[in-house]
Amino acid sequence: MSKIEDFLSAEDETEVVDAIREAELRTSGEIRVHIEKSCKDDVLEHAIEVFHLLKMDNTKNSNGVLIYIAVEDQNFVIYGDQGIHDVVQQEFWDSTRDKIQNHFKKGEFKEGLIQGIHEAGKALSKYFPWQEDDTNELDNTISRS
């Protein structure tokens, strides 16, 4: 996989965004996907920078989850804001990572992202259920740089 444009087709991207919308119907949490060609720095540190650049740290309940992908490096990170990080166990992050990774290893990028989004949505809905006054605080589209 060498081209960021080839990582997801337009149809795949639509399905991923639909999965984000569906997951967010049950939670006040926010889920984003960010795709880059490559990451020259520490991937976790860079994902945290992207998290802040996307203003994911500005949610009311500090409950944003970012799935960051560096395509050419074949690397990804799932990063959650302090609110979600405080309530889920490390097992959640590890099992979600493993589910995404198993799909990615088979070249099933859309499926891996959708699986990760569903897992994040389940955890967010458990600890941050949707409330009547909730608003969608962040864009659901996939960001790129």
Strand order of the largest sheet: 3-2-1-4
Largest sheet, strands/sense/barrel: 4 strands, mixed
Radius of gyration: 14 Å
Q: Which spans of ≥5 residues are poorly predicted at pLDDT below 50?
A: none
Gross geometry? globular
Brief summary of the model shown:
With 145 residues, this protein is of the alpha/beta class. Helix content is 49%, strand content 15%. The protein has a single domain (4-129), classed as Diaminopimelate Epimerase, Chain A, domain 1, CATH 3.10.310.
What would you note in describing this structure?
With 145 residues, the chain is α/β, with parallel strands linked by helices. The chain has one domain: Diaminopimelate Epimerase, Chain A, domain 1. The protein is 49% helix and 15% strand. Strands 3-2-1-4 form a four-stranded mixed beta sheet, sandwiched between helices. The protein is globular and about 40 Å long. The protein starts with a helix and ends with a strand.
Write the layout of secondary structure elements.
Blueprint: H1 4-7, H2 10-24, E1 30-36, H3 43-53, E2 64-70, E3 75-80, H4 82-87, H5 90-105, H6 109-127, E4 143-144
Parallel strand pairs: 1-2, 1-4
Antiparallel strand pairs: 2-3
Helix pairs in contact: 2-6, 5-6
Supply the key terms:
145 residues, alpha/beta
